[in-house]
Amino acid sequence: MKLSIVIPVYNEAENLPSLHQALYEALDGLTGTPWEAVFVDDGSIDGSLGVLEELANNDPQHICVVALRRNFGQTAAIAAGIDHAEGEVIVLMDADLQNDPADIPMMVEKINQGYDVVSGWRVDRQDTFITRTLPSRIANWLISIVTGVHLHDYGCTLKAYRGEVLTGFRLYGEMHRFIPA
Is residue 40 part of a domain? Predict the structure, then answer.
């Protein structure tokens, strides 16, 4: 079983080497599970693409880079990454280091137990309470009521999917947040 981690990137040049190292530390212990990280540069203007190309040159076995010609938004970047992913299990995560790659093996284990989707959530958010955390909690509550799907954090990109769940799935707008619903 191959694992693909799809990571949309927008102006994250400073975080990328640390993220790459954290991915290695988290995933190299997955015996018998080949993995790839599909980084999708979403029109970054801070040199992120150059950093990604260097990482890919140094680690072509694990790093795939997809470059969008301009900023199309997170959902479009995720869709492009899913289209390039080769894994039977696909994990989505942000490049901003707010999610720990060390959580990925636990998520993969749940997929291996038969779950189709495993959702992470941000526990120690690096956001302000009034402008980000509180509105997020209200939105999560409303979405749970409307959809009947109860997640802690719909806005958290960190999710693992059985690959066939995403086959033929078309994403647009900010839809990536609602795939589990």
Answer: yes
DSSP letters spanning 12-25: -TTTHHHHHHHHHH
Distances (CA, A) of 63 to 9, 32, 91, 115: 13, 18, 14, 26
| Domain boundaries, position 49 | 3-120+154-178
Indicate the average pLDDT of the chain: 84
Number of domains in the chain: 1
Predicted confidence at residue 141, as pLDDT, reads 46
Query: From CA 128, how far away is CA 67, in angstroms rounded?
Result: 31
Which pLDDT tens digit goes with each residue over 144-160? 456 555 555 556 689 99
Strands 3-9 and 89-92: parallel
108 three-class SS: helix
- Any domain includes 9: yes
pLDDT tens for each residue of 22-64: 999 999 888 789 999 999 999 999 999 999 999 999 999 999 9
Return d(Cα 17, Cα 52) in angstroms, integer. Answer: 9
* Residue 5: CA count within 13 A, CB half-sphere: 29
Please write the tens of the pLDDT for every residue from 70-94: 999 999 999 999 999 999 999 999 9
d(CA 78, CA 101): 17
Q: What is the CATH number of the domain that holds 168?
A: 3.90.550.10
